[in-house]
Design a protein that fits this description.
Number of domains: 1
Largest sheet: 8 strands, parallel
Low-confidence stretches: none
Number of strands: 23
Radius of gyration: 22 Å
Strand order of the largest sheet: 10-13-14-15-16-17-18-19
Mean pLDDT: 96
Helix content: 25-40%
CATH superfamily: Metal-dependent hydrolases
Bound molecules: N-(aminocarbonyl)-beta-alanine, zinc ion
């Protein structure tokens, strides 16, 4: 067991900041001390195995990205990050835990899908990992299987109101799953878009020759997200089931969540960096022409889609994060290369695999919100680490810098700088970056996961297999 002392930094939590030294013994934090503390008169720096100098830097709990899709089969291909490449990129960016989505494909047993996910991840992760369970076919068998999820350390599951014929659940199925979830204490995560109506709109656009990536966002209109969010909230209300709406991008969906919360309902919302910074307008490309012949806009095809800046959706997301109408920022990391993957939809936006890769950049991108004054430093920590831990049953072990917690720690340099892009900071297995050219203030300097230094001095010291499976408890947001 080795000891590590992080000295001279400002420890930031979700509730405050103070100058403190952090002492780690083995995998755990054992003390948060007055700066320069001694042990029985002996200088601590002389009695530990390693000292990390964090002078002038922030010391924050390791990031928790609660929405990733490594190796997800989707749109006739598979998300391009393996658990190894994706969690390595996560570590580079200061994320020390991910929660990925195990998939039950329609027609397959939940247990089979879950075991397949364990097979993909086991021994391959550079950081700790847990699973949510996608229920891709709600029937008597899968409802029964939900009863054992908690024993497997899975306290949340995802349903889709989108993607008919793939993961889609109709209202009757959602109702039944929520009734079961309420009985078991599981948290329902919802992809809230009206899939059947979107498919009609997409077909009509296609038939009119509107086939470029831009029309993906037109078909997936905000009304489709607002309507589905409202419906999910009503079903959750009826069944007294807590609800977590994933990847919120429409301001009207935030309004629905806020209204439910104002009525005292256990409804939570997550947004993602792409919905804070990127917009539908960018997908039009340089010419601003919807019929833009170029295919570049495919880089930003994801669902829910990027939305119009002119309509104010991005501002509404920031506001929701400030007012706690939205509680979390995850990435929905679902990377696809342009070559051979996004290209499947050249000439038909409906065939572009949906997803953006950001697992490496979430902390940096969200830190820009601190720089521009959109959120406080403490809120940055809360959104990216403390609330994800609490929402998904990891709080105490993860999400805090406190004695007894796992030593998942990031030393963040506010005076540093990060250039995002392929060939720069990019470690994700993608041939492009949705964030190409972003020059951001701040830099992830040192990353510690359960006491092991994974990143320091611009080098990666981690390994596939360091990451352990996280058996999660019930959400700690509810009594
Ligand atoms: O575009 C996205 N979000 N792809 C991943 C699948 C999902 O719906 O989360
Ligand atoms: Zn989704
Ligand atoms: Zn997703």
């Amino acid at each position: 067991m080795s000891t590590l002392l992080i000295t001279g930094g400002t420890v930031v939590s979700s509730t405050g900041r103070s100058r403190a030294d952090v002492l780690v013994d083995g995998e755990r934090i054992v003390a948060v001390l007055e700066p320069g503390s001694t042990l029985l008169g002996t200088d601590l720096t002389a009695s530990v195995d390693r000292v990390v100098d964090a002078t002038g830097k922030y010391v924050i709990p390791g990031g928790i990205d609660a929405h990733t899709h490594m190796q997800l089969p989707f749109g006739g291909t598979e998300a391009s990050d393996t658990f190894e490449s994706g969690t390595t990129a996560a570590a580079w960016g200061g994320t020390t835990s991910i929660i990925d989505f195990a998939v039950q494909k329609t027609g397959e047993a939940v247990e089979t899908g879950l075991e397949a996910w364990h097979e993909k991840a086991r021994g391959n992760c550079a950081v700790d990992y847990g699973f949510h369970q996608i229920i891709g076919g709600v029937d008597e068998q899968s409802l029964k299987a939900m009863e054992t999820l908690l024993d497997e350390g899975i306290s949340s599951y995802k349903l889709f109101m989108a993607y008919p014929g793939v993961f889609y659940s109709d209202d009757a199925q959602i109702l039944k799953a929520m009734q079961k979830a309420a009985e078991l204490g599981l948290l329902t995560m919802m992809h809230a878009e009206n899939g059947p109506a979107i498919d009609v709109l997409a077909q009509q656009l296609h038939d009119q020759g509107k086939t470029t990536p831009y029309f993906h966002g037109i078909a997936r209109a905000w009304q489709m997200e607002e309507e589905a969010t409202h419906r999910a909230i009503m079903l959750a209300d009826l069944t007294e089931s807590p609800l977590y709406v994933v990847h919120v991008s429409a301001k009207q969906a935030v309004d629905q969540i806020a209204a439910a919360r104002d009525r005292g309902r256990n409804v939570f919302g997550e947004t993602c960096p792409q919905y804070l910074y990127l917009s539908l307008e960018e997908q039009l490309g340089a010419t601003g022409d919807p019929a833009w012949g170029e295919f570049e806009g495919a880089k930003w095809v994801c669902s829910t889609p990027l939305r119009s800046r002119a309509e104010g959706h991005q501002d509404a997301m920031w506001q929701g994060l400030r007012t706690n109408d939205l509680q979390m920022v995850s990435t929905d990391h679902c990377p696809f290369c342009m070559k051979d993957q996004k290209e499947l939809g050249r000439g038909d936006f409906r065939a572009i695999p949906n997803g953006i890769g950001s697992v490496e950049h979430r902390l940096d991108l969200m830190y820009q919100g601190v720089v521009t004054g959109e959120i406080t430093l403490e809120r940055w920590v809360e959104l990216t680490s403390t609330t994800p831990a609490r929402m998904f049953g990891l709080h105490g072990t993860k999400g805090v810098i406190a004695p007894g917690a796992d030593a998942d720690i990031v030393v963040y340099d506010p005076a540093g700088h990060t250039s995002i892009g392929v060939g720069k900071t990019h470690h994700m297995n993608m041939d492009h970056s949705a964030w190409e050219g972003y020059e951001v203030d701040g830099h992830v300097d040192v990353v510690v996961s359960r006491g092991s230094v994974l990143v320091s001095d611009g080098e990666f010291h981690g390994r596939a297999g360091h990451g352990r499976y996280l058996k999660r408890g019930l959400t700690q947001y509810l009594v």
